[in-house]
Design a protein that fits this description.
The protein has nine helices and nine strands. With 264 residues, it is α/β, with parallel strands linked by helices. Bound molecules: NADP nicotinamide-adenine-dinucleotide phosphate.
Length: 264
């Protein structure tokens, strides 16, 4: 037990029930971190906790929560405290996208994307900062290569990730001697993301070359522990991000619209 009364010091990973978050949990566990896993699907979290209990130091805590709900960050803090745990690392990974024109997609689902990708990520960051500061800890925010340009056909998702990258970079400077802040920017990665986003509506999106979530998670872990400000996953995604940063939007908008256009 430490001076705050906590007996467990954990890495909190949101969106740990699938994809990149589940593989981040596997890497953190292999490296000996004690974990708290957060997502909505309690059964998937329990299965992963059972798996990681074999390789990590302890069976991870599981905290089923819908992070898009107001008050979720306070609820998470309260549940950690009730379990006698505090965080030294926070991984804000939970997020989703919706492919299609903003005017055509469901309004509630699109605002829900902002609730999860932006509002919950921000509230969790601010809620955990006192703990992370006290621990001289680390924060990993999962952005995307979508952060580097406006994305017609995926407009709100791209905008949410531009926010995540901008917020994380500024925070990394504000907190530079106290908390290390990393933004991870994966490109297309084979997970449940594509199904939830509706990639089957597009003739192109499922044809994009995809990295594995295992490779992306390893890059995210290494960058976090090295205290890197931004990590773009993979060489071709790094080249694409630089291209997106340097190209005029008048050129990028029709190209991205063509790639991300949906057939119906
Ligand atoms: N896959 C890609 O191509 C790609 C590329 C760039 C960036 N990213 C980013 O990487 C992150 C992880 O995505 P992924 O590809 O691993 O997708 P995924 O396989 O769909 O996993 C998303 C995770 O977020 C959780 N989640 C979704 N809504 C939630 C909510 N309301 N409350 C709590 N948890 C919630 C899901 O769990 P439950 O359903 O159990 O809640 C799941 O664990 C996201 O931020 C995504 O934007 C993905």
């Amino acid at each position: 037990m430490d001076q705050t009364g906590a007996s467990r010091i954990v890495t909190v990973i949101t969106g740990a029930s699938a994809g990149i978050g589940a593989d981040l949990a596997r890497v953190f566990a292999q490296k000996g971190h004690d974990l708290a896993l957060v997502a909505r699907d309690a059964n998937k979290l329990a299965d992963l906790a059972d798996e990681l209990g074999q390789v990590g130091r302890q069976r991870p805590l599981i905290i089923p929560l819908d992070l898009s709900q107001h008050g979720a960050a306070d609820e998470l803090l309260a549940k950690l405290a009730a379990a006698g745990a505090r965080a030294d690392i926070l991984v804000n990974n939970a997020g989703y996208g919706l492919l299609g024109k903003a005017a055509d997609l469901d309004r509630k689902a699109q605002v829900g994307m902002i609730d999860l990708n932006i509002r919950a990520l921000t509230d969790l960051t601010l809620a955990f900062l006192p703990m992370l500061r006290a621990a001289k800890g680390r924060l990993l925010n999962v952005a995307s290569t979508a952060a580097f340009a406006p994305g017609p056909g995926f407009a709100i998702y791209y905008a949410t990730k531009a926010y995540v990258l901008s917020f994380s970079e500024a925070l990394s400077h504000e907190l530079r001697s106290e908390v290390s802040v990393t933004a991870l920017c994966p490109g297309p990665t084979a997970t449940e993301f594509q199904g939830r986003a509706g990639f089957e509506k597009s003739p192109n999106m499922n044809k994009l070359p995809m990295m594995t979530s295992k490779a992306v998670a390893q890059i995210g872990y290494d960058a976090t522990m090295a205290g890197k400000r931004v990590a773009i996953a993979g060489f071709s995604n790094q080249a694409m991000a630089i291209g997106m940063r340097l190209s005029p939007h008048s050129l990028l908008l029709p190209i991205l619209s063509k790639i991300q256009g949906t057939a119906h």
